[in-house]
Predict the 3D structure of the following.
Amino acid sequence: MKMSSVNNRCSFLVGLILILPVFAAGQQKPVALRGGKLLTVSHGVIEHGVLILQDGKIAALGVENSVKIPKDARIVDVSGMTFYPGLIDSESNLGLTEIQAEGSTNDLIETSDEIMPHMHVYDAFHAESELIPVTRLNGITNAIVAPDSKDTLPGQDSFIQLAGKSGEEMLLVRDIAMPLNFTGDQRRNESWEKRKFPETRMGMAAQLRQAFLDAQDYAQHWADYEKKKNEAAGKTDEKDKKPPTPPKRDLKLEALLPYLEGKRPIVLAAEEANDLQTAVSLAREFNLKFVLNHISHSQSVLDYVAALKVPVIVGPIYEDPKPFERYDAVYSLPAQLSKRGVKIAFASFDAHNVRNLPYQAGFATAFGLPYDEALKAITLNPAEIWGMADKLGSLDVGKTANVVVANGDPLDVRTDVKKVFIAGEEIPMTSRQTRLRDQYSGQ
């Protein structure tokens, strides 16, 4: 590498360090947000409300004058504003990519193999990504970070909080779920030169089935080893006490075990009805706990989806309909699912435009999704789906103080977010974009 390149890179890193916001170890003093409209999500709307943030949590909330404000609290008048829980993106690529056209900044997928469950998002998560401040300026405070969907089993997702001194603080749950992608895009038949197994959906299903069978066999070998080891330990004869040789560890198979045991969910991605049914059949064959993903073009089997009684991550809602579908098939899908009692959550499936997450929910309301359900689909529903509802998703006492203050409806593109609190700490409303705006506008 040329010395000039090294110097340029060092200068960039130093500059990056200087402009990154510094987060305190914890909320320093109570904050009282007073006078605004509280969208609690879990128990309705409170007009002229007060919300107390203390020690990183929601300490109290209610109608103004009914809540005691601590004497040492910093009081913030938010009259005329709306405040609501931080929004949650149920699938993003935040921290795995920076500049789409520059390969060295992309850690989206490991393409050397189709079955890579032992890959972990947290090993590549880049906490200093410039895309994170851009995202949280529109009220997104938490997200699932997932690998790209070019492999059937591309690795394991992490659940993050979009503020912290380091990746360690931001990674709330390191391995929370694992994608299983079955959309047809994972076939290795991009060109004649690059064709390799699996070239077909048949091959994808066979390869997945073999991986889970191998993992079951691996688990049995370890169970047999533990049994023999315990038996040897209980023997009185020294000659019989020699422990057995343990099986060789296989990280790929080992990574599948928590999912085969139902400890973590598979995120089952399919788009069209036939792929969806094949993928569900495979999941049921191995008793996998699963959440459905995409199903953008499966309107013909929505009653079947509802009968599965599993949550569905919908999106991207801006996708074009297929030639055989109505013009509004994708747009109305969230409403159709909600009408059937399916719990839904929205996702950006992106890194650069995660900030548009609330507008997906708003767009769906124009095609029949009730407003309250749309708001839940980016707050409480994902919190429940990902096992975080005791901490996130609504304005309730005891939950993490992830709170957004805006000058209007969170689902309306005309609304501006004015303040964001994450774990009680007010986040600087700056990003690389705002700095460039101010620099070149002469402000």
Notes: The radius of gyration is 24 Å. The chain has one domain: 2-204+251-440.
